[in-house]
TrEMBL record:
Keywords: DNA integration, DNA recombination, DNA-binding. Pfam families: Arm-DNA-bind_3, Phage_int_M, Phage_integrase. GO terms for molecular function: DNA binding. The keyword Mitochondrion does not apply. Residues 216-393 form the Tyr recombinase domain. The keyword GTP-binding does not apply. It comes from Leptothrix discophora. InterPro entries: CB, DNA_brk_join_enz, Integrase-like_cat_sf, Integrase_catalytic, Integrase_DNA-bd_sf, Integrase_DNA_bind_dom, Integrase_recombinase_N, Phage_int_M. Residues 104-185 form the Core-binding (CB) domain. It comes from the Bacteria. This is Integrase arm-type DNA-binding domain-containing protein. Belongs to the 'phage' integrase family. CDD domains: INT_P4_C.
Length: 403
């Protein structure tokens, strides 16, 4: 049995700087090895199956004297039990290396989550938004880390820099990180609670989004200013001006108008049917077209020119036009020096319909393709109130044409 040297104290060990092997006592065979370079590390000399072995216990001072003695005691217990602590440690390292080599990174998990769920999302833009926010903010911090290692410090490192300045983006990003980590947990790539969860967790560390950022509403025209705006708009040349005119006449969303196809429009029945995959609510929406809207459509080149009602200038490889960009409408409004947005025109319509007409609220909400918030009310509203909406849209067109 090795001779046990006098047990040194931690302060004494700190003074051992001469190159060589220094017994520190407290456990048989435990020594501090000092290299000529000055580097120091722990060595435990043991006999395993009658053969002397030197077992490294880590560098000093990263591994303290107390920790080294604890490791040495554990190693000797393994030997007394008939095991080999050196082989055991090597096996543990190999197992850890194998686990890490098989582990998925956060970025890999996010990519798989998007692939698994994108078929249920409304459009390719949603996929792009997911990818862009994660690529810009999350991946630089934790994209290459094993998803099993993601914890609160990494999540906060992603969110805190933008929580105060880009609050809406940060809240969406937090939700997306939470969903990716939840997916990884169900897939057994990680375990434990989700460090990106809000309730009862991040809400104790970050201020509520509503406290640090006010919701920015789309700028809208005053109701009384719209007829004059429409007169000016109708003098503007270009497909962007016609698209914006159609946005106002139909109270539709800009994206729905810019993506409109001639196949969706029945000029005879004066109906525009927007398919579910292009609607925010994911439900098909029929839009009654006023006489003014029909006249506008008949003034356009038509389906023989392009499948899009309002084609952009750029072309796809197959020769078809690209969808008109949202910036085309924004730029038009800026040139007209109008302090409003295309989407804000819907707000103006809502103000006019609610304050200047006797049309029922549910008719107005259906015209805007809004889902009714009251579930009981929504359960009874099985129809789309199409005929009533047609009268509403004709009244709107007449108002827009007023002098």
């Amino acid at each position: 049995m090795p001779k046990i040297a006098a047990a040194l104290k931690a302060t004494q060990v700190a003074t051992l700087t001469e190159p060589g092997l220094h017994s520190v006592g407290g456990m048989p065979g435990l020594a501090l090895q000092v290299a000529p370079s000055g580097a120091r590390s722990w060595i435990l000399r043991v006999k395993v199956a009658g053969r002397r072995r030197d077992m490294g216990l880590g560098g000093y001072p990263e591994v303290s004297l107390a920790q080294a003695r604890l490791q040495a005691r554990h190693a000797r217990e393994v030997i007394r039990g008939g095991g080999d602590p050196i082989e055991q440690k090597q096996a543990e390292r190999k197992a850890l290396a194998l686990k890490r080599s098989n582990a998925l990174t956060f970025e890999q998990c996010a990519s798989r989550y998007i692939d698994d769920n994108k078929s249920g999302w409304k459009n390719a833009k949603h996929v792009q938004q997911w990818t862009n926010t994660l690529t810009q903010y999350a991946y630089p911090v934790m994209g290459k880390l094993p998803v099993s290692d993601i914890d609160l410090p990494q999540v906060l490192a992603v969110l805190q820099p933008i929580w105060q300045t880009r609050t809406e983006t940060a809240t969406r990003l937090r939700s997306r990180i939470e969903l990716v980590l939840a997916w990884a947990t169900v897939r057994k790539y990680r375990s434990g609670e989700n460090p990106a969860r809000w309730r009862g967790h991040l809400d104790k560390l970050l201020p509520r989004p509503t406290k640090v950022a006010q919701v920015e509403h789309h700028a809208a025209l005053a109701v009384d200013d719209v007829p004059a705006f429409m007169r000016t708009l109708r003098t503007q040349p270009g497909i962007g001006a016609r698209a914006l005119e159609f946005v106002v006449l139909t109270a539709a969303r800009s994206g729905e108008v810019r993506g409109a196809r001639w196949s969706e429009i029945d000029l005879d029945k004066q109906v525009w049917t927007v398919p579910a995959d292009r609607m925010k609510a994911g439900k098909e929406h029929r839009v009654p077209l006023s006489e003014a809207a029909i006249l506008l459509l008949k003034s356009l080149p038509g389906p023989d020119h392009d499948i899009l009602v309002f084609p952009g200038l750029q072309r796809l490889p197959n020769g078809q036009a690209k969808t008109l960009s949202d910036m085309a409408l924004t730029a038009l409004l800026r040139r007209m020096k109008v302090a409003a947005t295309a989407h804000g025109m819907r707000s103006t319509f809502r103000d006019w319909a609610g304050e200047r007409t006797t049309h029922a609220r549910e008719v107005i909400e259906h015209a805007l393709a809004h889902l009714l918030k009251d579930k009981a009310e929504a359960s009874y509203a099985r129809g789309d109130l199409f005929d009533k909406r047609r009268r509403l849209m004709e009244d709107w067109a007449l108002f827009l044409a007023a002098n």
